[in-house]
Structures are given as structure tokens and as C-alpha cells.
Specification:
single chain; 6 helices
Length: 219
């Protein structure tokens, strides 16, 4: 077994090397000030919600790229599990919880770009974690826009879904209220251990594909 990989500049570890986008890096640094570093899981791969849970490949953690989804970051505390999707868009952002695409406006309105709804994107991540825990553990979807961005109009978000800028992250998380009594420290450890046990260690090929996507994004 490989030794844990330490995220540079943090106390957070991963079972394999990871390469983060600038937005993901800013998110991780901010989360370490809010959550116990041991309860922050970065660059996580899980079987998709519609994957066959009895598949011998998934049981043996040998999964094809088509059967996996990648979650930027998970964090656990006494309220439950926070599932983060980080975005590096610039300019003004317009979004609606029920729409497939959101709009980015930059260059004082000259440039408009549509991108897939991060609410829908992270909803699939939430579903993957719900497959593990059901309704026992509250799940919170948090989409964080880093960089020079203004959230102009964001409306009709589903319950327990939050959209914020990097600067608003702490206040947004403080406002997340659990519907159940707080988990004990031991229960938080049990939740983390179950996530670790369910997490898939991706093959080098799959991991390299994700790193390539990160490099393309930086370019």
C-alpha cells in the first residue's frame, strides 16, 4: 500500500497523489480553517449511483472510468457531510436551480458563456453519497466560485444546496442547519471511515485523465 499523499501546504492527506485546479486549491485551504483536516477528503472517486453495487469490479475497486464520478472535496462535521464542487469562473454568474445551463458574463457584458449547471452536477455527487448512507446522514451540496466573480442572480436552489463565492464560504457553512441532533465525535469518525471504505482508489489511467483535464483547464 502506498503511503498517504500530503496535500502541499496543508495537513490533509490522500491515498494517492492529486493535482488540484487553482479554485480547488483555494477551497481546500479555506476548508482546513473550518473543518478538522482529518475530516476533509480531496479528489474522491465513487461509483456512480446507477452502477451495479454487486459488480465484482466495484467490489474489488477495479472500476472503469464510465462507472466512476469524481468529487472535488468532502468534509464531515457534527452536522453531516458537505459535498463541494469548486468553480473557477470569472465575471458575473446567472443561475437557476431548475435550468440545465447557467450563464457567465464577462468583459462588461461583451462575452457570454453557458456552462452546465453546477447544481445538477453536484446533485449526482450527492446521490452517490446518499447511496452509501441513505437518509441517516444529512448531506449538503455546496458550490463554491473562486476567483474574481460576482453571483448576480442565483435562485430556486433545492433544499440543502448552497452557492457562494470563496469569500462567502465561512458564512454559508455557518448557516447550514442540521435537521437532527449533532453527531458525536465517534460518530463523525465512523462516517469518515465509511466514506474511506467506499471510496475507490482509481487506476493510474483514470487519475491521469483527470490530471490532464486539470492541465487543460489551467491552459
Amino acid at each position: 500500500m502506498e503511503p498517504p499523499y500530503k496535500i502541499p501546504g496543508t495537513k490533509i492527506t490522500s491515498p494517492y497523489p492529486v493535482k488540484l485546479t487553482p479554485a480547488e486549491t483555494r477551497l481546500v485551504f479555506s476548508l482546513e480553517k473550518i473543518f478538522d483536516p482529518q475530516n476533509i477528503l480531496v479528489d474522491c472517486y465513487f461509483p456512480k449511483p446507477d452502477s451495479n453495487p454487486n459488480s465484482r469490479y466495484i467490489k474489488n475497486h477495479v472500476v472503469s472510468d464510465a462507472e466512476l464520478l469524481q468529487i472535488d472535496c468532502l468534509a464531515i462535521d457534527e452536522r453531516g457531510i458537505f459535498i463541494f464542487e469548486s468553480k473557477g469562473h470569472l465575471g458575473w454568474i446567472y443561475g437557476h436551480g431548475n435550468r440545465v445551463h447557467w450563464t457567465q458574463v464577462s468583459a462588461y457584458g461583451k462575452n457570454k458563456h453557458q456552462f452546465y449547471s453546477p447544481v445538477r452536477q453536484n446533485a449526482s455527487h450527492v446521490s452517490a453519497i446518499a447511496t452509501i448512507f441513505g437518509t441517516i446522514v444529512p448531506l449538503y451540496s455546496v458550490i463554491v466560485f473562486g476567483g474574481d466573480v460576482t453571483l448576480k442572480v442565483i435562485d430556486n436552489l433545492p433544499p440543502d444546496c448552497h452557492v457562494c463565492t470563496q469569500a462567502e464560504l465561512t458564512a454559508t457553512l455557518d448557516g447550514a442547519v442540521s435537521p437532527r441532533p449533532p453527531f458525536s465525535p465517534q460518530q463523525v469518525i465512523d462516517i469518515r471511515n465509511k466514506l474511506d471504505a467506499s471510496r475507490v482508489n482509481p487506476t493510474t489511467i483514470i487519475r491521469d485523465e483527470h490530471i490532464s483535464e486539470v492541465e487543460d483547464y489551467k491552459s
